[in-house]
Amino acid sequence: MKVVSNIAELRALLGKWVGNSSSIGFVPTMGALHKGHLSLISRSIKENDKTCVSIFVNPKQFSPDEDFDIYPRDLDQDILTLDGAKVDLLYVPRLEEMYKPGSLTVITVPVIGDILEGVYRKNLFSGVAMVVAKLLIQVGPHRLYLGEKDYQQLCVIRQMVDDLDISTDILACATIREKDGLAISSRNVRLSDQQREVAPLLHQTLLEAAEAFDNTGDELVTAENSTRKLVERGFDKVDYFSICDGLTLGAIGPKTENIRILAAAWLGNNRLIDNIALSTILTRTAGGNNN
Ligand code: AMP
Predict the structure, then answer these.
(1) Is 203 a catalytic residue?
(2) Which of 62, 111, 125, 207 could form a cystine bridge with 66, CB 3.0-4.6 A?
(3) If you take atom 10 of ligand 1, which residue's CA is the nearest one?
(4) Would you say the CB of residue 173 lies under 6 angstroms from ligand 1?
(5) Domain count of the chain?
(6) Residue range 2-51, pLDDT digits in tens
(7) Could you tell me if 260 and 123 lie in one domain?
(8) What is the per-residue pLDDT for 283?
(9) Rg (CA), the chain
(10) What would the pLDDT profile of 86-130 be if each residue is shown by its tens digit?
(11) What is the mean pLDDT of residues 260-268?
(12) How far is the CA of 147 from the centre of ligand 1 (A)?
């Protein structure tokens, strides 16, 4: 595996591959790699001639009161993991090159980026949009692999890529979970033993909400009941619990076909997010996708 940390080297290598008509798959990450990341990576390896992974803990997407300084980092282990996974290229951009002094451009994706996570994490989506736009311009991949674990991020990036006419296909990958249902996340290492026991109840509550909504058709009452249930089950605070249109993330309308349930809740200082598609219940009953 090649490891590069500047744009010139990155472009030289990718230019050579693209010149040989290789298709390029790209998986942007913040490192501390786990099975969730590896599922995106192995799909990219299957579907492309070359796979590029980036590791960059993007300061722009953290607000000053968030966990940038203590975000888990383990570059040496990540390099071993990626090498073992047969990734072709690891891009570890340097902060000074990614955000050059004097740069002025900002990218925001209003409306879909202002709701849910956007209400609670003010810098998140402008930071994500900026870094992903820059990475896509730098790498120029044919395909971009993103996890449904960060469902709103996926929607925001889709909107941005469409708005900016970026010619990269976006592939959404199912959330990888622990056996007890907890969505795998780099931040899970910070959960205490007791919090780790409560954590899977977020997924459980999403599944129960899907069933309740299926029975009643009342998204507001279901969301209220689910919020109460999360607190009863040991979560300290619920930022949101939303049953919404899976494309716009806004209110469900008569024509909504794709319904998504998204939630964010706190265990001590740890904030967990998760989401499921409404069809989860049906596919689970049929023994299919356990997302
Ligand atoms: P991160 O390193 O957290 O920024 O994540 C990098 C990419 O991996 C994003 O597209 C995430 O949505 C995706 N990802 C993170 N956790 C999971 C998971 N448990 N299952 C599937 N994809 C994930």
Answers:
(1) no
(2) 62
(3) 146
(4) yes
(5) 2
(6) 999 999 999 999 999 999 999 999 999 999 999 999 999 999 999 999 99
(7) no
(8) 45
(9) 19
(10) 999 999 999 999 999 999 999 999 999 999 999 999 999 999 999
(11) 98
(12) 5
- Do residues 260 and 149 both lie within one domain? no
Question: Is 268 within a domain?
Answer: yes
The verdict on residue 178 lying in a domain is no
Query: Ligand 1 centre from 38 Cα, in Å?
Result: 9
According to DSSP, the β-strands at 270-277 and 237-245 are unpaired
Atom of ligand 1 nearest to the CA of 28: 6
Residue type, 49: D
Are 168 and 223 found together in one domain? no
Q: Given a cut of 90, is residue 280 above it in pLDDT?
A: no
Domain that holds residue 29: 2-173
Question: Facing residues of 183 across strands?
Answer: 177
In a domain, 215, yes or no: yes
The residue out of 144, 173, 202 marking a domain boundary is 173
Given 173, 207, 231, the domain boundary residue is: 173
What is the pLDDT at residue 218?
Answer: 96
- The β-bridge relationship of strands 89-91 and 237-245 is unpaired
Looking at the structure, tell me whether residues 128 and 25 fall in a common domain.
yes
Q: Which strands make up the sheet holding 237-245, listed edge to edge?
A: 237-245, 259-267, 270-277
CA of 42 relative to ligand 1 center, distance in Å: 13
Question: Please, are residues 198 and 233 in contact by the beta-carbon 8 Å criterion?
Answer: yes
Ligand 1 atom index nearest CA of 185:
16
- Where residue 79 falls among pLDDT bands split at 50, 70, 90? very high
In a domain, residue 211? The reply is yes
